[in-house]
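Annex B. Sample input.
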Amino acid sequence: SARPCRSRWRSRKNRRPCPGSVSYTHLDVYKRQVAKPGLAQSDHPYPAEETKEWTIVNPDVEATSSKIHFSRIDIDGWDAIQVLDAEGTIIQTYGSGTHLRDEWSDYIPGRIVKVRLISDIAGNGAYGSDWGFRADDILSISDEPIVYLPMLSR
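Annex B, continued. Sample output.
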């Protein structure tokens, strides 16, 4: 007779769900753990030997610059994540071995931010060697002047 399931999965090796249980992919579980649905994200794990690009448009029509928030970045090998402007100019690069949480990009001119993931041929079988990235927020700067308040002395 079959051994009763003690967890959601019958075995770690082939990741088959227990009979009668609800199975969720890792991505589904992660989506439920964040407050925002996300602007752009790679596959988790991301495929090896692939270059993929996402375009994020800031909804603030007055924005002269934008920056995006990464809730998570995990890349290994010779892989890279590039943050670009609308023209394709690279503004910022996260190189191999980057493992960050709660990271804001540099400001990018304009309302359009592009994110490019470049993965090498090395990796874990058909997939890249790590989790990838998730961008979940965008901030803007407009042309309105910044007002500085004078410091008050005691």
